[in-house]
Amino acid sequence: MFKILLFYFFSGDNAQTLLSVKTGDPDYVIAHKNCALALNCSVLYNASFGYPRFTWLKNGAPVEDSRRVHVLENGTLFIRRVLHKLKKDVTDQGTYRCIVELSEVGKVIVRDVKVDIAGEKPWSETEFPAIIPQSLTSFIGVAMVELT
């Protein structure tokens, strides 16, 4: 089931929607080692209050932007190649949190998700695109309805 949480700004008798947050994305994901992973952070916002700033945390620490790990403009955390090297203490396994901030308004925790890592997929999906596929950025959207 998907739900929409609405955050309002009240000024006198008028109420304006600040931010709409889609809930219902899975809070537990199993990712395949050496494959791509996209974690959504879906919001609609009122541009008159500024543009949202998306921050992802992994185990409480900010996720560093790199060629392999990138936060897209729509808030999705895109990991081009999932790592899991326990001997080197390098892994994408952990608990992720997406926080959205509207300047001068505040911050909202949009999503918490636990990521576990499975072995490599048995087929040749371990080759990675040189750029982020358009299909990963075009499906993000929020409808103002409740689905059951």
Automatic annotation (TrEMBL):
Transmembrane segments: none annotated. The keyword Transmembrane does not apply. PROSITE patterns: IG_LIKE. Residues 37-114 form the Ig-like domain. Coiled coil: none annotated. Residues 1-15 form the signal peptide. InterPro entries: Ig-like_dom, Ig-like_dom_sf, Ig-like_fold. Pfam families: Ig_2. Keywords: Signal. This is Ig-like domain-containing protein. It comes from Dreissena polymorpha (Zebra mussel).
